[in-house]
Write a structure and sequence with these properties.
Helix content: 40-55%
CATH superfamily of the largest domain: HAD superfamily/HAD-like
CATH topology of the largest domain: Rossmann fold
Distance between the termini: 9 Å
Radius of gyration: 18 Å
CATH architecture of the largest domain: 3-Layer(aba) Sandwich
Shape: globular
Structural class: alpha/beta
Number of domains: 2
Number of strands: 7
């Protein structure tokens, strides 16, 4: 066991669970990729969604977009009405790594996620393993999000984590860079196989 790394911090969406709004809008638009891309790049964009992750209410978010695109109210409301259908399931390879880390009892394990406070309880129902972290920092509850320094500092301070003894895993490269700037080891997630190799390269055993 690497004595230096004592804590493993997971992002969730794109690392442990497969979430993608395309799963809903492919059905709505009957697998028309041009319409799906148009809607998610023009109306319910990632920039719009991330504001909910940072604490904006879903109702306010809906009203803003409906005021801008009143003719698409039904499509806009579908984003959160059908939100549970935006998951294809857990990313099994990463989940296996997480479960092995827990069983090893050699490391602390936490989650740091950009997630709406309003949808977080539903996520816990959909994926019960999310309740097994030793602690989770949810951006929507903190009113700040990755990659801003504040949310990383909340995690480190709340759970008394030493940055240099922790590794953070995220599929968003900007979020990894922000963690590294604070002295946290960072892994840019691409696949469970790549994650396994990089964790073992750090001397993490499970």
């Amino acid at each position: 066991m690497n004595k230096k790394i004592k804590t493993v911090i997971f992002d969730l969406g794109g690392v442990l669970v497969d979430w993608n709004p395309e799963y809903v809008y492919r059905k709505i638009f009957k697998d028309n990729p041009e319409k799906v891309n148009w809607f998610l790049n023009t109306i319910c964009t990632s920039e719009w969604n991330v504001a909910q992750d940072a604490g904006r209410s879903i109702e306010e978010a809906n009203q803003l977009k409906i005021a801008e695109f009143p003719e698409h109210e039904t499509l806009i409301r579908s984003y959160y009405e059908q939100w549970p259908q935006m998951f294809s399931g857990a990313i099994k390879g990463t989940l296996s790594i997480f479960e092995a880390l827990k069983k090893s009892k050699n490391y602390r394990y936490y989650a740091l996620t950009n997630w709406s406070a309003e949808t977080w309880p539903t996520a816990l129902e959909l994926f019960p393993f999310l309740t097994t972290f030793q602690g989770v920092v949810v951006s929507g509850e903190e009113k700040t999000r990755k990659p801003f320094d504040a949310i990383y500092k909340i995690l480190l301070e709340r759970y008394q984590i030493q940055a240099e003894s922790a590794v953070f895993i995220d599929d968003n490269y900007d979020n990894v860079v922000a963690a590294r700037k604070l002295g946290i080891h960072g892994i840019h997630f691409n696949s469970p196989e790549q994650l396994d190799k990089e964790l073992k390269a750090l001397g993490i055993e499970y």
